[in-house]
Amino acid sequence: MVMAGPPKSLSGQDVGSFAYITIKDRIPQILTKAIDTLHRHKSEFFEKHGEKGMEAEKKAISLLSKLRNELQTDKPIVPLVEKFVDTDTWNQYLEYQQSLLNESDGKPRWFLSPWLFVECYMYRRIHEAIIQSPPIDDFDVFKESKDQSFFESQESIIALCTHLQELMKSIEDLDENQLKDEFFKVLQISLWGNKCDLSLSGGETSFQKTNIVNSLEDLKPFILVNNMEQLWSLLSNCKKTREKASVTRVIIVLDNSGFELVTDLVLADFLLSSKLATEIHFYGKMIPWFVSDTTVRDFNWLLKQLKHSNHKWMSRCGVDWENHIKTGRWVYLDHMFWTLPHEFSAMSQVAPDLYAALQKAHLILFKGDLNYRKLTGDRKWEFTIPFHEALNGFHPAPLCSIRTLKAEVQVGLPPGQGEQLTAAEPTWLTKGRYGVFQFDGPL
């Protein structure tokens, strides 16, 4: 029997699909907001850099306006021109996309090409417009909305930090079942933290309004795949069999900054304090990405905000977390691969150094929707295809996707469940209302 290849990529060709709406409406909105942000910072650029700052602002705006026009008129996708560490890799990928087209199709276009590719390309072109405009070439057009989202989620962040600090007082006294319950709680906090996503809202502020800790029971029915037990058994076995000098490394591939990042840091702190892990490696993005994704600047900024907070438990978290960084129990890393358009099954070829680093982990947690799309290749999978199969050979170490659903791809569901959800709630795949802990264990 001939095995069929993987299904087609999601793309803007399917009129009315979420991919189509994103390319038609959400991405132009994000570009317009980026242009407005540059415009509003005009006087700041002038104060800092004089006439050169004004010229740079005009140049960046004109490059972004050109990009918006290309997108809205479905022009061919053009190679990157400004030299950066990843420029050649991007342009090779663009050539590869072109090679997949029939002769008659000509060049890859916005609505015809895979959605994952064109969406990543759009953010990479925003970065190109900025780096082509010195002296404002380190300006993050999304920083303002990321910061605002953090400040607007302040009450929820206080509640989280308080929950964690209260838990820390008694963590040594918890028996195994109590520890497991608390582990499941911090996992769910990290999952629902993923609802705050600025690219989903077209760059409009999105913040956490409620105390997430009190909502966990109510949210449980919305977890469609729940492999938390497997995570517990993996990490508790590591803890039991660990020699004094040996290490249990958990890698967290981050998604959004702000509130979601706090939920991830709460999880990471719990893993250390409970001795379920001895070190945590975080991976963020090298450049501003998908509006609210975490960069090293966002990570350090957040720790500073917490540390200097007037609230004692927030401040305590900031001090503790900075200390984890200083002592090397937490390590923040980035890599250009996370902002390439490739699905993760290509990582071992495209970024063998990153793949080798991931292989050293006992567990990798992939946060958020974009990571899920890249894990599964962002394809039109049947809902029932096993997660392991959709990973298409990507398995550096045991891994788990922790995501709320914001794209029309979901695998590993029991027969009939996807269809039932579609009948009851047509937008269940894209509203961020449902979540998964989807685990692919030791081979």
TrEMBL record:
Short name of any one Pfam family annotated for the protein: ARMT1-like_dom
InterPro entries assigned: ARMT-1-like_metal-bd_sf, ARMT1, ARMT1-like_metal-bd
Keyword Hydrolase in record: yes
Coiled-coil ranges from the UniProt annotation: none
Domain Damage-control phosphatase ARMT1-like metal-binding: 22-421
SUPFAM superfamilies assigned: AF1104-like
EC number: 2.1.1.-, 3.1.3.-
GO biological process per UniProt: DNA damage response; methylation
Keyword Transferase belongs to the record: yes
Gene3D superfamilies per record: 1.20.930.60, Uncharacterised protein PF01937, DUF89, domain 3
A single MF term (Gene Ontology): metal ion binding
Catalytic activity: beta-D-fructose 1-phosphate + H2O = D-fructose + phosphate; L-glutamyl-[protein] + S-adenosyl-L-methionine = [protein]-L-glutamate 5-O-methyl ester + S-adenosyl-L-homocysteine; beta-D-fructose 6-phosphate = dihydroxyacetone + D-glyceraldehyde 3-phosphate
Keywords: Hydrolase, Manganese, Metal-binding, Methyltransferase, Nickel, S-adenosyl-L-methionine, Transferase
Swiss-Prot/TrEMBL cofactor(s): Mn(2+); Ni(2+)
Role this protein plays: Metal-dependent phosphatase that shows phosphatase activity against several substrates, including fructose-1-phosphate and fructose-6-phosphate. Its preference for fructose-1-phosphate, a strong glycating agent that causes DNA damage rather than a canonical yeast metabolite, suggests a damage-control function in hexose phosphate metabolism. Has also been shown to have O-methyltransferase activity that methylates glutamate residues of target proteins to form gamma-glutamyl methyl ester residues. Possibly methylates PCNA, suggesting it is involved in the DNA damage response.
Comment field on protein domains: Subfamily III proteins have a conserved RTxK motif about 40-50 residues from the C-terminus; the threonine may be replaced by serine or cysteine.
PANTHER family named among the record's database cross-references: DAMAGE-CONTROL PHOSPHATASE ARMT1 (PTHR12260)
Family listed: Belongs to the damage-control phosphatase family. Sugar phosphate phosphatase III subfamily.
Name of protein: Sugar phosphate phosphatase
